[in-house]
Every structure is written in C-alpha cells, then in structure tokens.
Design a protein that fits this description.
Blueprint lengths: L19 H6 L30 H14 L8 E9 L4 E8 L5 E6 L2 E3 L6 E2 L20 E5 L3 H12 L3 E5 L5 E3 L1 H10 L5 H16 L14 E3 L3 H5 L3 E2 L2 E5 L2 E4 L4 E3 L2 E4 L3 E2 L33 E3 L6 H25 L1
Parallel strand pairs: 4-16, 6-7, 6-14, 7-10, 8-9
Antiparallel strand pairs: 1-2, 2-3, 5-15, 11-12, 12-13
EC number: 1.14.13.168
Catalytic activity: indole-3-pyruvate + NADPH + O2 + H(+) = (indol-3-yl)acetate + CO2 + NADP(+) + H2O
Organism: Panicum virgatum
C-alpha cells in the first residue's frame, strides 16, 4: 500500500525469509481456514483457478509473487531490540541487530508500523526433545494426545486420526465451533449487516449443526471461532480435561485420571512479543502486545504509531489495516507539507 502511494519505507524481518512460520513450521495438511476472497492482500487477487481454501504451499507462492510484484525488499535477519519515541525530535528511534554479523543498525522514522503479527513466539512449555509436527503419517497405531483445541489443534487431531492414530484432545478452555461454510457466510453478511446480528445467526447455525457439545467436554463461548474440519465427529470420545502433570509418557489430568501416550502434540499457539522491544506503545497496545481498542478502531495510536494484523481478524483484517494506515500516513505527510 505504501508503494502504491509512493511513500518510502523500510521493512525489517528477523527471520531469513518471508512467511517463515508457513515455510518452516506449518504442518503438511494446513490450508487457509477462510475462503480465498477473504485472504487476499491489497491490490492482488489469487489466480482464478485457485481452490476456495488455499493450501499452504500455494499460499506461500502467493506471498512470493506479491513480494516480487510490488518489489518489496525486506531487510532479513534483522531483529529490532528496542524502539523508543523521542518527544523532542518527534521521531521513533529503533535499534536493530543484524543477526548474521551482530552489527547494530539504527533507524529513525516519523512513523512506525508494528506488523510483527499475533504469532511472534511459540506459547509452549520447554520440554527436552520437542520438535515440530508435520504429519500424522508417522503416528499410525500410536496413542497421541493433542493439547488445546484451537484451529491448529482441531486440524492436527483430525490429521492424526485420519492416519490411524488413537487420538485424544485436551480442551483447556471453552470454544465456539463452526464450519467453514458458516464462517464464509458470516464474512459475506458482515459487509452489509450489523456484526451483532451476524454473530447471533452464526451461533444459531452452529448449534443446529453440532448440537450440544458440552456433553462431550466441549464448552461453548463467544470467543474467536474454531473451524471444524471433521474433528468433532471423530474425537467426541477422546476429549480430556486440563493436564495437571506429565511424567514421561504418563499424563495426569485434573480429574485424577492417568493416561499413557506415545506422543504429545502441543497446539497451544503463539503469542505477541511486541512489548519486549517497543517502549512507548501504550497508546495502541495492551500488556499482551495486542490492540487496546476493538476492531475496526484498533489500528492507530499516538505519535505516528500504527499496528497492522494484530486484531485477530486474519488476512482480511490485515488488508484493511494496511490500507487505512497507508492512507493516514499520506494524509499526515500532506498536512506536514502544508505547514
């Protein structure tokens, strides 16, 4: 968006490539959970023949094509260590480290856009021998426990069960289970209908499709939706309570039950790390490094500070944020020029 408005910028990335989570840590069967029309970045659509739900490799190619199309040149292997606003000079001062040479680089900017994502650091326990999950193919016939039932947890559990693993899942908190079709309908309706009305309709549709899941250990709430890919039908008998202790392959649960597993998959997600380096972000971010204000009023703070893609609205929200931020910066620059 900045390129389209001829606004110069610098983008830094601590990893050695774009979309590192998708390239290096995503499991094989992963697809975008939303239909492709809600997962496009600004000014570039998916190919006409692309499937409705984009597979991992095709999404990565889309990002590569996007970078090439708009000549985006991130400074890879560059980690921001601190970023502070100088009231006197009215600028953001960022100290970054080149992770290859260990050299410190200083950036000075009138505007700062935090786009490090909701998923900056793994939110999992430190356990020896831990490694990433790629496919359920190697777990056939084994007893496997999946911890947490967000979108990744539900899909991994389905993948394991499909490959013949004896799969159980821990539901640590209430979830609101929906289908991809229900979400697609909601995303379409919300463009013309009040959000509360759409939410009410989706809740009713979900209840009609899944019935009462509480008897299977899945409590429902109004939090972000978890999209079922067939998991609910497969693992209704395998839902377990919270874990109290792990001793090797033996897992103890809060209800005093014990089970033995050959493998444990932690699908406990990621967390924001913005507050570790951003020193003056209180105008836009909370203590968890996420927006203080609700969508769609979350993206702008004070002193030229913005955040993009942190409101838990996926790629659709990121695209909206990017357009608003670019236009606002253009407006600010025009005002500064007029003074």
């Amino acid at each position: 968006c900045l390129t389209q408005l001829s606004i110069p910028y610098v983008i830094v990335e601590r990893e050695d490539c774009s979309a590192s989570l998708w390239r290096n840590r995503a499991y094989d069967r992963l697809k975008l959970h939303l239909a492709k029309e809600f997962c496009e970045l600004p000014h570039m659509s998916y190919p006409v023949d692309a499937p409705t739900y984009i597979p991992k490799d095709q999404f990565v190619k889309y990002l590569d094509d996007y970078i090439e199309c708009f000549d985006i040149q991130p400074k890879y292997n560059t980690a921001i260590e601190s970023c502070t606003y100088d009231e006197g000079r009215r600028c953001w001062f960022s100290m970054a480290r080149d992770m290859k040479t260990s050299m410190v680089v200083r950036y000075v900017a009138r505007f700062l856009v935090v786009a490090s994502g909701e998923n900056s650091a793994e939110n999992i326990p430190v356990i020896p021998g831990l490694h990433g999950y790629k496919s359920g193919a190697t777990y056939s016939g084994k007893n496997v426990l999946v911890v947490e039932c967000g979108n990744s947890g539900m899909e991994i559990a389905y993948d394991l069960a499909s490959h013949g693993a004896n799969t159980s899942i821990v539901v640590r908190s209430p979830v609101h289970v929906v289908t991809k079709e229900i979400i697609r309908l909601g995303m379409s309706l919300v463009q013309h209908t009040p959000v509360n009305a759409v939410d009410d309709l989706l809740v009713r549709l979900s209840k009609f499709v899944f019935g009462d899941l509480s008897r299977h250990g899945i409590a429902k709430t109004g939090r972000s939706a978890v999209i079922d890919v067939g998991t609910v039908g497969l693992i209704k008998k395998g839902v377990l309570g919270n874990i109290s202790n792990i001793k090797g392959g033996i897992v103890e649960f809060e209800n005093m039950n014990e089970r033995t597993f050959d493998a444990i998959v932690f699908a406990t997600g990621y967390k924001s790390t913005v507050n570790m380096w951003l020193k003056n972000g209180q105008s836009v971010l909370n203590n968890d490094g996420l927006p203080k204000k609700e969508f769609p009023n979350h993206w702008k703070g004070q002193n030229g500070l913005y955040c993009a893609g942190l409101a838990k609205w996926g790629l659709a929200g990121l695209a909206m944020d990017a357009k608003k931020i670019a236009n606002d910066i253009l407006s600010c620059l025009a005002s500064m020029h007029d003074i």
